[in-house]
Fold this protein.
Amino acid sequence: MSPGSVFLWRNTTSHRTKGQLRPIRPSGSESANVGRRHKKACLALERSVEDIKLHFLGTAAAEGFPGLFCRCQTCSDARKRGGKDIRTRSSVLIDDVLKIDWPPDTYLHVLREQLDLAAVRDLLVTHTHHDHLVPGELIMRKPVFAHGVDHPLNIYGNELVVRACKPLLGDDDERFTHRLLRPFKTADIGSAVVTPLLADHNPDESCFIYHIERNGKTLLHGHDSGWFPDETWQWLRENPIDFAVLECTSGPLPGMHNHLNIEGVTKIQQAFLDQGILKTASAMAVTHFSHNSGMLHDDFVQAFEPLGITTAYDGLVLQI
Ligand SMILES: [Zn+2]
Ligand SMILES: [Zn+2]
Ligand SMILES: [Zn+2]
């Protein structure tokens, strides 16, 4: 596929009805292993070596969508509708080996998406808000709790990420390593070449959005971001991308500081094209939605489809 082009890989939620999760095992006598083998065969047939598989595990903001304790109209509509309107806390998985963020819904992601989490080699953490990092859950990768784990999970992030993870998990090179990343300093982490860029999000820490190069493709994982700071724009102008994932936390609400809204996403798309950062307008997806937007999945599709932007949902897999 040409750089920047994208197509829908798999829709795991299309047959879901209210409150239902996709079965962990295929129906009938088929075992989960058969399903996995079939999936691998499909991968071999349909993907070229250069493609990046971008798997959206969760697509909600901090409280989940519907919100954990929320009784607002949007949350009650989402509960009634189910399917793509049920969103868990945000994370993506790239080619099954590179994960971004470790939200509180990770165990649900493993069950729903049939993930082999032990295969993940590198974990990039954007910042320490609880919807992006729950370090206590990572203890379950240690001996006694997990068997057959044959390589360390390399955790990358800012000072607060290292401080939250290293004392808790240890740094033994068998199960975990911890690496501090600095803004705008490129690092070859094995599964990709990554550069953390600064976001306008939590002023108490260096929140990162990530420029990721893998298989000759470049991807911007752009949340939680707000409107990008000047030095991030400058860096992106010198390092164009093939695809961008942005947040649209606030929907139609005003303001582009801390989080983005529809206006912010639209303006960034235009700036990407004007400044030669992105070649194709449609090489973009939005995620990290809040119920406070008052918008359900179809509303986001209606807002973004005319711009060629994909509205992500839990379980969506794109091939870039
Ligand atoms: Zn968040
Ligand atoms: Zn709500
Ligand atoms: Zn945040």
Summary: Residues 1-48 have pLDDT under 50 and may be disordered. The chain has one domain: 7-14+49-319.
